Batch of 4 targets.
Target 1
Amino acid sequence: MARYGMVIDITKCSGCYDCFLACKDEHCGHDYPGYSAAQPMTGQFWMNIIEKERGQYPKVKLTYIPVPCRHCENAPCVSSARDGAVYRRPDGIIIIDPEKAKGHRQVVSSCPYGVIYWNEQKSLPQKCSLCAHLLDEGWKEPRCVEVCPTGALAFGDLDDPDSEVSRLIASGATESLHPEYGLKESVTYIGLPKTFVAGTVVFGDTDECAGGVAVTLTGNGKKMTIKTNFFGDFEFENLDKNEDYIIEIEAKGYKPQEMSAKTKTDVYLGIITL
Ligand code: SF4
Ligand code: SF4
């Protein structure tokens, strides 16, 4: 018996919404008795895509974070339901029984990720079932994984050391979106956005972009030197939050510059004139 899991690589997600649409195609208007009731045409997002805007103008980045149910081992939705109306299958999939869960509105607020939706018409809590009805028919993956054009969604057996998900987890690169919830999630991420420090350097005497200038970032046990690009831009990515950094800029024939940055959020230092 497999134990299913998914790894979502944020660095590969282009925000195309194909997974979102495949989920709609599979579940809107389709009942799967014992697995899930039909998803309404509006108001529910079993494969939700969070669009996270980072930085300040003109240095703005957009990151897409697909957010389905994480099919947790410590699932508060299971304990919040009565009479086994929400349960964990032996393969790890958490199912909201579309008959037994009728009227169990309290289940919606039990999930700290907010991935359970209330169907007013059916008086039913609903969420992603990992397309369990298809997996039980022999499908190798849910519809969202099947359609992803960039390979951002990996799916497989967490107990098989040779599966892609197991290899990704073994690499140590995976993490939870909210480890503080302590849910032991079966859906984890690679490349969740941290913070960046960026800036643009110009030569004061010529007013031209300062390309190829050395920029050094020091702090939080790190020291990294990079060169500005053709446009004088530099960027240090994947920095820890709430840390203090010193940025030094040096170019032959110009007075060195030094500035500080605290990564409470992403930092754009603006135009720095040498
Ligand atoms: S993510 Fe929420 S709905 Fe899904 S299993 Fe965990 S607690 Fe339950
Ligand atoms: S289908 Fe893949 S690339 Fe497109 S939004 Fe979903 S995870 Fe991202």
Target 2
Amino acid sequence: MHDSERELLFDEWAEHYDESVNEWSRGFPFEGYEAVLDEIARLAHPKPGLSVLDVGIGTGRLAERFVNAGCEVWGMDFSSRMLAKVHEKLPQVELVKADLLGHWPLPSDRRFDRIVSAYVFHEFDLESKTRLISTLAGHHLVEHGRMVIGDVSFPSEYVRDQASEKWAEIWDKDESYWAADEAREALHRVGLEAYYHQVSICGGVYVIEIDGEQA
Ligand SMILES: C[S@@+](CC[C@H](N)C(=O)[O-])C[C@H]1O[C@@H](n2cnc3c(N)ncnc32)[C@H](O)[C@@H]1O
């Protein structure tokens, strides 16, 4: 599917996104959705005044946790209708419409204290995930900053393979669900150490710090 078609798909989903994730929060792939978002926020250690970039902000479900903590929040997404939803709910959030894999609209020296994301990176294959995380960490995170990413994820390739059999009927072969062992290895190869927390049966959170400290 082309990026423009995916964009349209998310535009259509925007209207009922909040209801659908609430409804699907039991079972694959959204099991533990709220707990994953809570864990991202907890591990990001939000404080008033911190600058936070939420990549793939959707309707703002993760971003609202940082707004409530007094952070200065920016959100990026390629779906205009998702961004419109955020604007209705959280007008204080600075919104940027962009394809995360396309032209990067932020100034190359614009850095954030935290970069966070929820349920977005499974859209990208492992190579694209690694490249995007590396670019974000290298160009848009402050020194001693922290990136926290939660998504559909399994502790290992073995567990992911088992899950793909268990949920064969609803497993989307076009999506690249995370396996922590392969992702940590791929990130290590580009000089980044990631720490992983499994939150639900199919949801987990990655923490990446450019100074190498643990979460
Ligand atoms: C499943 S939703 C997650 C939204 C939100 N982060 C949450 O947890 O509820 C995925 C979001 O990523 C956005 N997205 C997917 N691929 C993208 C891309 N290539 N560039 C920018 N945004 C993208 C979609 O428009 C959508 O808002």
Target 3
Amino acid sequence: MDRPDWVPDDVDMSVPNVARVYDAALGGTHNLPVDREMLLQAQKLFPAVADFAFDNRAFLGRAVRWLAARGVRQFLDIGSGIPAIGNVHEIARVVAPDARVAYVDVDPVAVRHGQQILADDPGAVFVRGDLRQPDDILADPAVAGLLDLSAPVGVLLCAVLHFLPDSDDPAGLVARLRDRLAPGSHVAISHGTRVEEFDAAPMDEIGGLYRRTTMPFFVRSRAEVTAMLDGWELLPPGVVPIGDWHPELGDAVRPQPAILGAVARRS
Ligand SMILES: C[S@@+](CC[C@H](N)C(=O)[O-])C[C@H]1O[C@@H](n2cnc3c(N)ncnc32)[C@H](O)[C@@H]1O
């Protein structure tokens, strides 16, 4: 197929990509046939796979509204994904019209589309960056120019840490971000987990599909996810299936045992 104008030249259009498969699951328009094919294959193995994306997005929305209601006025959304409906700046500004948001993703399609839609927004930026280099993200001129690191920041790490193997030391990266942020900052995380309710074979096969992308994923136990928040003050209700995280803040929140979520505060 011809290269759409939203696909940068360095993108291999024959390889499915995590950000674009997620966009397809959410009904977005920035995905390619190879991504939709991978989503279909995943849905054959596990029909509810698109629910993961919607339920995760709903958790992120509740966390952003909750943080904004607690006074957070600047957000750093790392592994933000391809912008679609319900972006963080739109959600936060319903509560706090002056909210500022820096989006960060490694995916070139996400970055190009994000920069296009935010070009006229003085309160939001979209930069290419890698969670594995948190200091580089914070030093990026666009991020440093928008966020005041001497004031609290709400960091969003939603459905991104499970793309990092243990060898990348995800807990150490979350700790590094904590050390760079002002007291009163918060982090919201969501992370895939293995649950007994699901048959192990389909989850492993879905994992096999993701290994065809440039980003395999690594589910972790509640104890492992909780350990990523060492040194943070874990806020109620703790590390829980995302459907159990403040369901009163959303509409028709579903149970979602395959994804854990939490919000924690830097004292
Ligand atoms: C499943 S999407 C989640 C999007 C969004 N955070 C959400 O929760 O709806 C995962 C995103 O993380 C990005 N990503 C994966 N590894 C990353 C890394 N090391 N640094 C920055 N972004 C990363 C992918 O490109 C993708 O856009």
Target 4
Amino acid sequence: MAKIIGVVQVKGGVGRSTLATNLAAALSLEGATTLIDGDVPQGTSASWGALRREAGRLGNLTVTTAQDHVELVHKARQLVGSQDYIVIDGPPRIAEITKVMLIMSRLCLLPLGASAAEVWATGDLVQTVEAARRRRPEIDVRIVWNRFREHTRSARELSEAVHAQLGLEEMQARLGYRVAYGEALGRGLSVSEWTDRLARDEFGGLVAEVKAALA
Ligand SMILES: Nc1ncnc2c1ncn2[C@@H]1O[C@H](COP(=O)(O)OP(=O)(O)OP(=O)(O)O)[C@@H](O)[C@H]1O
Ligand SMILES: [Mg+2]
């Protein structure tokens, strides 16, 4: 049975595709992994996958798309028996696909920039999570701090704000503001395959936490 990881956020440009592609690349080293791009026609993850395919780098990874929640459920049902991991890159809005991702994922990661504005913007998604939890109370949604810069606001302040305003758990590993994420994405690579050791290490820490959460 595949473990399903959804990457959800209503705000655009927060790092969903960065998180989904890097996570899919890392998990594909552990077992058969499918990355489903649910943010089409934009299709960042699908484009990244196409570059990887052209470079002969897919290995244990398959990359596909889902136009909407019906196709997502259909594909996940088809894949769940043959894959070890399914990673879903969601759209930047509360569409049916986001709700379905909350219901079907074992773990949902919610990338969030370290600013009050992004925390406020996530409020609507939190309401959607609460509504979904009425149907499935064990839904596990965790914030992943992205573009995290120590000097913007202290980590403790942000963490407290998130608990008070959003009531969500967070992953301990934080992703810094590093050009490596864009450089790797644009080449169909993961940061583990790129030259920035700090990015590689911090993402490695996140992958270890994700695996622990899925165990
Ligand atoms: N930690 C980071 N440091 C620096 N740049 C980053 C970081 N995370 C993401 N980016 C860059 O920010 C841009 C948006 O990231 P990404 O495409 O992952 O976000 P998204 O939430 O999927 O956006 P969209 O709404 O466009 O789908 C990309 O150019 C990406 O390379
Ligand atoms: Mg995206």
